[in-house]
Each structure stands twice: as structure tokens, then as C-alpha cells.
Amino acid sequence: MSDFFTETLYDPLGQSFRIDKLYYEQKTEHQHLMIFHNAFLGRVMTLDGVVQTTERDEFIYHEMMAHVPMFAHGNAKKVLIIGGGDGGMLREALRHKNVEQVTMVEIDGAVIEMSKQWLPNHSQGAFDDPRANIVIADGMDFVRETEMRFDVIISDSTDPIGPGEVLFSNDFYAQCKRILNPGGVMVTQNGVPFFQVDEVRNTAIRMSASFSDQTFYSAAVPTYYGGIMTFAWGSDESTLRTIDLDSLQQRYQQAGIETRYYTPEIHRASFALPRYVDIAIAEAKA
Ligand code: SAM
């Protein structure tokens, strides 16, 4: 009889993945980390009983969370990733040749070390890129204290429970605003609105207190159970979000990045949200 991992994100329901081979399971200094193989999903990482990433569908999440802000900005040189311990976001950000440095602030060094060892297809050597600046710290402390400035900030965190909770606070968004260069943009992973619509409401209120152009875009990542997930968007430069398709297509061609999910057309379309999400945002901001 095989073992199964059952996700505990929601009390009344969950999803289970057969554990075909367990690579790592430990309580780190911050969270319970598992990495195992599943015949259908490839290697899977979970933290505190919640699916973080799988080899089979990580490209959707990492491409949409990295390339939408990067192509919208058009000339990002300094990028900040909060979280992202598996290395997939670092990999995608570094594919942009104009990028001079990506600083990645991860609270749990064990996630990076175990991802290097057991999820090598996520980082694909990104941790060794001379432009990668890896910092082991709480992202909240870093954004509060750093004197560095960034063009794009990507908060690739766990859900707002445990160590990730602080990364969904007013103060976090305000500090990210402080360290963004003029014309910069920040995006965050913001959960699956069909089950976590309060995350949309809370982020809409908290993030719009710091950014004049605040909204969400979406993609469906199969192992983030419940349909589309939202990515929060915050900038003071509204032209970034409304960039025309021709400009996006030019930037995409010039970048020469081979993607499997992201296209300029999907970029633009991803900002069209289901009406129940639009209503939740409007109610929150009323
Ligand atoms: N794709 C995943 C998702 O959408 O849930 C996130 C993947 S990544 C593994 C999440 C990372 O956030 C983890 O490595 C975790 O250690 C990190 N993290 C959580 N809270 C943090 C904090 N306060 N500061 C920095 N990193 C944090």
C-alpha cells in the first residue's frame, strides 16, 4: 500500500498525491519540508502540509510571476525576490539579459539547500549565476532595513500562515514601495480566489494604500487546487499594466526567451478577471 501526502490547506477538503519516492522530510528551523516524487507530477515540494511546487506545472507559475512584471517594465536591472526558495523564480528572472542582479531573500536556508539537491530542475544552476545575490533572512526585515533599490519586486512566498503571514501586511507593501525605483512594479502570489477570496480583499485594501495602480492578474496552476490563482500587482506607473500588445511582442522577441506558458497575448489577457473577483476587489476598495 503506497503512502499518500494529503494537503491540509483547507479543513473541509484537500488533495492527495501518492508518494512514490520520498527524498527528504524534516522540520527545518522554520517549517516542515517534504520533497517527494509522484509518478504524475514529478518531484513535489510541500511546506507545512501545503503544496509549494511540482516539476510538472511550476513553469506556469514561475513564467507568469516573473515575465509579466519584467516585460511590462521593459528594462529591469535590479530585481528582488522574496521567498522563492526552490529557485524557479530566480531561474526565470535571470533569463532576462538586461538584468544586472537578482537579490533573493529566503527565510529558510534549508529550502534552498534541499531544492538544490532534490529539485535541481527548478533552479537549473541559477543559484550559481554571478548575478544571483542570495540572502537568508526574513523578507519583512530585509525590505524594512535595506538601502538597496529595485525595479521589480516579486514576492514568491508561502500562504499568509506561519512565516509567510507578514508578507501580506500593510507594512510589507509600504516597505516594498519605499525600495522600488521610480517606474517600478511589485507582484505577489495571492492565492486561489475561489477558496481564498479574503486574500484578494485583504491585499486589495492593504496594497492600494501604498500603490496608485493596484490590481490582480491570474493563471491556473493545476496543483494550486481550486481554479485560477491571482497575482497581486502594485505600481505607481499605470502605463506598465496597460502596455500595448505590439510593445510586448517586440520585447518578447528581443528577449529571445523560450517559454512554455507565457505569451504576450496571455500577458494582456491575464488582467481580465472573473466578475466575482472584480466584485470582491470593488467591495474591498469601496
Ligand atoms: N509557489 C509557492 C506558492 O505559491 O505557495 C511558493 C514557493 S516558495 C517555496 C515559498 C517560499 O517562501 C519558501 O521557501 C518559504 O521558506 C519562503 N518564505 C516564507 N515566509 C518567508 C519570509 N517571511 N521571508 C522570506 N521567505 C519566506
Spans of at least 5 consecutive residues whose pLDDT stays below 50 are: none
Helical percentage? 25-40%
Q: Provide the list of bound ligands, each named once.
A: S-adenosylmethionine
Q: What string gives the helices and strands in order?
A: EEEEEEHEHEHHEHEHEHEEHHH
Number of DSSP strands? 13
Radius of gyration, in angstroms, nearest whole number = 18 Å
Structural class by SSE content:
alpha/beta
Rounded mean pLDDT score: 97
Terminus-to-terminus distance? 53 Å
Biggest sheet statistics: 7 strands, mixed
Please state the overall shape, judged from the principal axes of the Cα atoms: globular
Q: Quaternary state, please? A: single chain
Strand order of the largest sheet: 9-8-7-10-11-13-12
Number of helices: 10
Strand content range: 25-35%
What layout of secondary structure does this protein have?
Blueprint: E1 3-6, E2 16-19, E3 21-27, E4 32-38, E5 42-47, E6 50-54, H1 58-73, E7 78-83, H2 88-93, E8 101-106, H3 109-118, H4 120-123, E9 132-136, H5 139-145, E10 150-156, H6 170-179, E11 180-189, H7 193-208, E12 213-220, E13 228-235, H8 245-255, H9 264-269, H10 275-285
Helix pairs in contact: 7-10
The structure holds S-adenosylmethionine (SAM).
